[in-house]
C-alpha cells in the first residue's frame, strides 16, 4: 500500500534507505518514472500473490506472514534504539505499529471479498480524504464528488458474485487506517531517527497480529513453501517498492511522483486481471477511473496551492 502527494513520499521512501543500497546501482540506469511504475506494480503483484494464498490460509494468517517477513527484513538493516525514548515517543511508535497491523488486516479481509482493483480504489479514499481535509478549497468538492460517484458505482445494488457490502466495509476501514497511518508516520518521523520509526512499528505490528495470525493459520504456517511465498510477499509489498521510490524521488519532483502514484488503483485492477483473472465490468472500470481522477485532481490542486 502506498504514498504520494497525499502522504509525504520522501518520508516513506527514506524509511528503507538501507535496503535500497542493494538496488541503487541497477536503479540508476532506469528513468525515475520507470522506477515509480515498477514500485507500483511490485506492491500490487505482492498483493496478488498474497490473495493466491487465501485458498490455503485465511487472510489474517497471510497478513501475519507478510508483516513478520517485513519485520525480519527490516531487522537485517535497521536496529531501532529504544533507550532514551519518552513515553510520548513510545505512544507514537506503538500507535503507528498498531495502525499498520490493523490497516493490513482489514485490507486483506477486503481483498478476500473484492477484486483487487476495487479494494485498492476504495482504500484510496483514506489518503484522498487526508489531502482534501488539509486543502479545504472549493474545488476539492469536485474531487470528493468524483470519489463518491466511484463508490456508488462500485456498490453491489443488486446481486453480485464479485462485490459484497462486507468487502466494501473492510476496504473503507482500510482507508480510515491508511489515513491514520499517514498522520502517525509523519509523527514517528519527527520522533525517531532515520528508518528506526518504521522498524519499531513493524515489530509492534508483528506482536499485535501474531495471536490472530498464528491461531487462524495453525501448523500450516510452518510449511516451507508458504513461508517462502510469505517472504516474497514481504519483499514485493515493502522493501522493493520503498527502495525504488526512494531512488525515483532523488531524481524527480514530488508532485510528479504524486501524480504517478495516483494510478495505483488502475494498476491493481490490471494485476487482478492478469494474475488472478478478475474481469471487471465496464461500470467497475468507470468507478476506478472516477477515484483515480479524484486523486489526480487533488494532487494537482494541492501542488498549485503550494
TrEMBL record:
Start and end residues of each EamA domain: 166-297
Membrane-traversing stretches: 56-78, 90-108, 114-134, 141-158, 164-184, 196-214, 226-244, 256-276, 282-299
Keyword list, A-Z: Cell membrane, Membrane, Transmembrane, Transmembrane helix
Domain of life where this protein originates: Bacteria
InterPro entries: AA-Vitamin_Transporters, EamA_dom, EmrE-like
Membrane topology per record: Multi-pass membrane protein
Main location class: membrane
Cellular location(s): Cell membrane
Pfam families according to UniProt: EamA
Family in the record: Belongs to the EamA transporter family.
Protein name, as recorded: DMT family transporter
Species per Swiss-Prot/TrEMBL record: Nonomuraea salmonea
